[in-house]
Amino acid sequence: MDEKEAPVFWLEEHSGKPATPASLKRKVRSRKLEFVGWGSKPLIEFLESIGKDTTKQISQHDVTDIIRKYVNDNNLVHPAKKKRILCDERLYSIFGRKAIGRMKVYDLLETHYAENQDAWSDGFSSMSDEDDVGEEQKSVISERKAYQKKKVIETPKSCFAAIVQDNIKLVYLKKSLVQDLLKDPERFEAKVVGSFVRIKSDPNYYLQQNSHQLVLVKGLKKASGNNDINTDILLQVSNFVKDVNLSMLSDDNFAQEECEDLHQRVKNGLLKRLTIVELEAKARILHEDITKHWLSAEITLLQKLIDRANEKGWRRELFEYMERRELLMTPEEQSQLLLEVPNVIAEEIDIETAPQDFPGDEQENDNSLVSTLKGTSDIPSDTALDGKLSTLMPSTI
Question: 293, 292, 317: which is closest to 305 by C-alpha?
Fold first, then answer.
């Protein structure tokens, strides 16, 4: 019977020869800007066209804010890529491209100021018309080497989920999130049981090297003599003798070492292996709650970073934090994050190749077996001993 062929895929192999993409083969041409006072002619004409007074110099940061407002008012944000701006005729006259990154507006304006021309006396390179390729990507592409495709056998995947950070994050609950879930007591158990939480390791367990460990919530239990719903619930978790109170949970992210420790416990049979189907089902149940909790924490963190950057005078960082915060607060971005389908990574199956038989192996194995059976009590014969000595001693002839 013919054996079933293993799945294959094509892998690019480096050939060592530099390659230039077709979109970058056009020669770089210098673009000399004509200046009208403090700014370039395209920039001045743009500002005057939208009613701005250009008799006095407008700072680079203020012009960036003006362009951001112009983009929002004219709905020039890319519908699929929120970090991209679709340039209309006015913006194209300034940047010379059909699309630019929102985070690059401030930097791209630098060449349009007369005071910066000493550093740009040689002109600047006109960019490719490829819309979806950023500046960083183009620099990487230009340094890319030629590749050849090679047929490679694809590593077979298991029906079990891999114990890696990206998978555990899908069902990991922080302390503050668990407390939020308590507001809906009817659905609390269905959401928490089967998730992972982080607690302090038992100090008496000498084999545990990490300060915290990840544990699987296996059930709930009510503490006796307490009517407060926030304190009378105990979590029954894996690989931990005592029941866990909610106050014992960690509100921080788990470390890579803790994930590796969890993987080792699963490998040792101390914890049941999770299938892809089980983990995907649990991740779908928790996805909305985890995403909303992350959005709230991320926006709060960005506000703190904005305040710090404003205090320190870090203008570039301030602009980046404000852009990021503004993006996360838009209903479109939040809706897109909530609609994302959790992707579970499958565990790879290790293929053990059988050792090949080589000529002489059988005879060598037989000899080693005989010597093993004889043990150390055998004394080599004089003839064999003389042969070994003659091999070791240099010839005098």
Answer: 317
Chain centroid to CA 294: 16
One fold for both 27-127 and 165-348?
no
Nearest to 144 by CA among 255, 16, 264: 16
Closest by CA position to 171, among listed 279, 292, 293, 298: 279
Q: Which tokens go with 82?
A: 């929120």
CA distances from 194 to 34, 97, 135, 282, 288 (A): 65, 50, 44, 7, 16
- CATH class of the domain whose range is 27-127: mainly alpha
pLDDT tens digit sequence for 248-271: 899 999 989 989 989 998 988 888
What architecture does CATH give domain 165-348? Alpha-Beta Complex (3.90)
Closest by CA position to 101, among listed 112, 91, 116: 91
Q: What H or E segment, with its residue span, contains residue 53? A: none
The SS3 call for residue 362 is helix
With a cut of 60, say whether residue 125 has pLDDT above it.
no
**Domain residue ranges of the chain, discontinuous segments joined by +:** 27-127, 165-348
What mean pLDDT is predicted for residues 17-43?
65
Work out the widest C-alpha separation in the chain, in whole angstroms: 109
Tens digit of each residue's pLDDT (9 = 90 or more) over 326-371: 999 999 889 989 888 888 888 887 655 444 444 444 444 455 444 4
Report how far residue 326's alpha carbon sits from residue 316's, in angstroms, rounded to the nearest whole number. Answer: 15
Which residue matches tokens 């367990």? 205
Tell me the per-residue pLDDT of 40-73, one tens digit each, with 9 for 90 and over.
999 999 999 998 999 999 988 889 989 988 998 8
